[in-house]
Design brief:
Largest sheet of chain A: 7 strands, parallel
Helix content of chain A: 25-40%
CATH class of one domain in chain A: Alpha Beta
CATH superfamily of one domain in chain A: NAD(P)-binding Rossmann-like Domain
Oligomer: homodimer
Chain lengths: ~425, ~425
């Protein structure tokens, strides 16, 4: 493999940091571009990662000591085109891996300001990267992190980005219809649409990775305290498996929102970094947006709670499971069957969610138990604040989609 | 019909002004909210409407003198939430008709700044309206102007917003897949996705009107010089039929971009205002986004040129048709069959594009012939500037969509 230059945008984050180190291990030239805003948001929202993480400069220095490899650092905001363009001109990447977005659904649902900020910052950052590629790096490959949450929970199988539709005797392969469930997830759909267009008109090449919920550590981030990855368990940025592990360790009930039948896609961080590398090594032809679904397994929220309950009990803990009112508006029982064959066909060897993985997460939670702040666990952000008080009746019902026939037959009301 | 209060956002524009007057005629209470930015963009881009339009305050005063009806005016920007919220609190609309967006594809393609501005301004404005409705007017009905251009040119029939998909033995009714052709059209897709979500989680009601290209004047805007509507023929905001009419009158070739097989949907402004009123009178249930395709006929660009050529020749003019290089990246020959039955079922009586309509447009072009600025006619905005020079080969080919099968089988390249 020819040595290649990869710019990891958002390389100070959970997935970005692990990806940067993994690519560096494999012999890629790696640079990180990050505005460090996530650390600032932690501070301004009174939350913190369970695991202590050191400043990015110390992380990179530790990696250099340990591996002998250099990672270049650009402290810059993708929303600032001038700074982004200077970095791309200076570094001349062959691949841009783009994790640099506001990535939390609850954060985007706090209020109007957070919704608008999430969409404008994410959309602007991705547009800036596309224009920078057009003008400064037209041969580069954009590997963009999307989310499985873009698809929602349709009543048919979820394909990888596109679906063949037969309709009235004709057929076409079209973008898979999306039904995202938060203003954050919507921002990723907007990005996907913008990237697809830019590929089509400018001949750019891009890979959209619709990723499931990520858990665990990578080989590079585990072990060394200066390389340690963040572990979010709070109500804003925390993920469900992290939260359950922390709850089990501190003797807090495993809190299942609603019925717990919400089924989602999941992936081990070791597989995330492998998938990103497989994508880098397999760019599409110019003009094409290829879409991979990046996950290895599907679980319902209740299944995950039961898994953690079982493993924790075996360790001598005494966890309980408690259903709480669901702050989100979402289906709590639904069909869910998503395809993930593309990355497997490229060679991904999945790390499935084994008891040992949950044990490792519980180990981590126990090691940093003193840092747990119970006040951070609850999800205070309501998808529909005050809606029940207003008597809205359709919430939590299956998504109210209007079939063409019924709208056409709406009686005149005048 | 109970008298209803309608806030027309963007009511100083071509469709918005005609809609405000038509609703006022029908007995609705009407207010206009507009930031007048379009008049500013005309100035800053060195363009002007063929027809002279008077300031909004004089327009509204003229309407009051003529009709005896008052239209309230809010000079405000929907991107400024405080100003928008104050207007909604003060006016308490039953319906918000939202035309208040940057609505030109070439304008959005000028450069990065215009692309980012178009998407952030349009998306933010619509998000602001949705949050204002949630908090200040939850029973109101949003009538949002979208565009038929959201759909692109799929190889199957275009339905109205949703499509039933049979897949692997299951079925669902899902949002119709969109393939918009500019950063402007993309912004409308982003809006549609955001509105659909807001209806679902907050129980709001909205109607998305996917409108074709509009031409002509309404009954209210024709005749009185102070009520006269704008007539855009320039390369940024002008529409194809307006441009052909001006070209025919001044003896400039009717300029067809590319082969001219590009087929689009069209609608007479008299039908636009009728469709908006039908939508206002027929709101969906709370929690629902209903989608209507708002057009009456389909024409290819070349067909339109030939129509104008024929009518102009009959008037003694000597028009010619000339094919120019297409500044856009789009299919120039394609299947196109879009449904428009919903508004017909609600009672729309279409004004089809008759020779008399073209004659009226040619009359207008002749009346204001002295105001024609030939320098404004050309479309200088390239969809892919420099792309041919870079040797991109896929431009103008059918949209390069990656079928799932072929991406899955991409060979390893390492």
């Amino acid at each position: 493999m020819a040595k290649k230059r990869v710019l990891v945008v958002g390389g100070d984050g959970y997935c970005g940091w692990a990806t940067a180190l993994h690519l560096s291990t494999l012999g890629y030239d790696v640079a990180i571009l990050d505005n460090l805003i996530r650390r600032h948001w932690d501070a301004t929202h009174g939350i913190d990662t369970l695991t202590p993480i050191v400043p990015i400069e110390r992380r990179i220095a530790a990696w250099q000591r340990k591996s002998g490899r250099t990672i270049e650092l650009f402290i810059a905001d993708v929303a600032d085109y001038g700074a982004l363009a200077r970095a791309i001109e200076a570094y001349a990447p062959d691949t841009i891996v783009h994790f640099g977005e506001q990535r939390s659904a609850p954060f985007s649902m706090i209020d109007r300001e957070h919704a608008v900020m999430t969409q404008t910052v994410n959309v602007t950052g991705t547009l800036n990267i596309l224009f920078a590629m057009r003008d400064l790096a037209p041969e580069a490959h954009l590997v963009k992190l999307g989310t499985m949450g873009e698809y929602g929970t349709p009543n048919i199988d979820i394909e990888e980005g596109y679906i063949e539709i037969q309709h009235n005797g004709r057929r076409d392969v079209l973008p898979y219809p999306k039904q995202p469930g938060s203003f954050y997830h919507l921002s990723k759909v907007h990005d996907s649409d913008n990237i697809s267009f830019a590929c089509r008109i400018w001949g750019l090449r891009a890979t959209d990775l619709n990723q499931g919920v990520v858990y665990g550590n990578s080989d590079e981030t585990a072990g060394d305290p200066e390389l340690l990855n963040r572990f979010d368990y709070d109500g804003l940025f925390g993920t469900v498996l992290n939260r359950f592990c922390v709850e089990a360790v501190v003797g807090y009930p495993l809190t299942v929102h609603g019925a717990g039948g919400q089924t989602r896609s999941f992936i081990d961080l070791r597989d995330t970094v492998a998938c990103v590398e497989l994508s880098i090594a397999n760019p599409p032809d110019p003009g094409r947006l290829q879409v991979f679904n990046q996950f290895t397994e599907q679980f319902s929220v209740l299944e995950l709670a039961e898994r953690v309950h079982r493993v924790a009990t075996r360790r001598g803990l005494t966890p309980t499971i408690e259903h709480r009112e669901n702050p989100r508006v979402e289906r709590e029982a639904h069909y869910y069957n998503a395809k993930n064959t593309s990355l497997l066909a490229l060679g991904l060897q999945p790390h499935l969610l084994e008891d040992a993985t949950i044990d490792a997460m519980l180990d981590l939670a126990e090691r940093y138990r003193d840092r747990v702040d119970l006040a951070q666990i609850a999800s205070h952000v309501q998808w529909a604040p005050g809606a029940r008080a207003r008597g809205a009746s359709n919430l939590h019902a299956p998504a109210p989609i209007v079939p063409p026939d019924s709208t056409n037959l709406t009686p005149l009301r005048r």
